[in-house]
Amino acid sequence: MASPMEQFNIKPLIPLEVNGYDISFTNSALFMTLAVVLSTLFLVLAMRRKSLIPGTMQSVVEVLYEFVAGIVKENIGPEGRKYFPFIFSIFIFVMFGNMLGLLPYSFTFTSHVSAVGTLALIAFLLNVVVGIRKKGWGWLHTFAPSGSPLIAIPVLVPIEIISFLAKPFSLTVRLAANMTVGHVMLKVIAGFVIMLGVGGILPLFFDCLIVLFEIGIGLLQAYIFTVLSCIYLGEALHEH
After folding, report:
1. Which pLDDT score is estimated for 1?
2. Range of 183's domain?
């Protein structure tokens, strides 16, 4: 039986090398591309024929739109409207990545630190850019909030810097770890189904339950990633 970790191996589909650098098109890149293409097709087709009385697909898109808009409004405020396209794109991309990873013979790119970490780093850099544009270099007071006693500054500043730099790390680990653990459990229990043959009905039942559970976890993790991205952006726009 194959190792439960084998499903996370990145494999080149179209080998490419430029000046000694491996830039092969991999299974991870394929499913990231599929997530972008399928989510775009879904949104475009669902809203192609907008109706006052929406059909099923239009209703789903409108619910997703209102859901993310509510997250932005609650965690950022009215100023967050201009950043809504970015936040909505993050939510849809992560959600589709999590859902695609549950299909047989697919690849869960959201279980990889490199993929999720890049997305978290983009959100982190947006946080920095927005903060500097909003407050100028006074944004550096983030690491030494006004009213802090001078005696506490040498201790407070390093703590605040470490806490700030940990944001993309926390975003990355939370999502990647949850996706990895869930898929390992699926693989392990599926292995018992094969080994037990007819007697594998019970493990198969548990595997089906875990799939349903993983769907919920995938949606929840997309929500958490989006909420934290909004919270960090809100901190850049507003005072502590």
Report:
1. 55
2. 22-237
Helices 84-100, 201-237: inter-axial angle, 10-degree rounding: 170
Q: Amino acid identity, residue 89?
A: S
Alpha-carbon torsion, ordered 61, 207, 217, 57, to 10 deg = 0
**Chain centre distance of CA 53:** 32
- C-alpha span between 228 and 112 (Å, rounded): 19
In a domain, 6, yes or no: no
pTM passes above 0.90:
no
Give me the number of domains the chain comprises: 1
Residue 203 falls inside a structural domain? yes
Residue 30 lies in a domain: yes
Percentage of the chain with pLDDT > 90?
33
* DSSP type of residue 52: S
pLDDT at 199: 64
SS3 at position 54: coil
H runs (alpha helix) in 77-152: 84-100, 113-135
The pLDDT value recorded for residue 116 is: 92
Most confident of 141-150, 158-167, 200-209, 225-234: 225-234
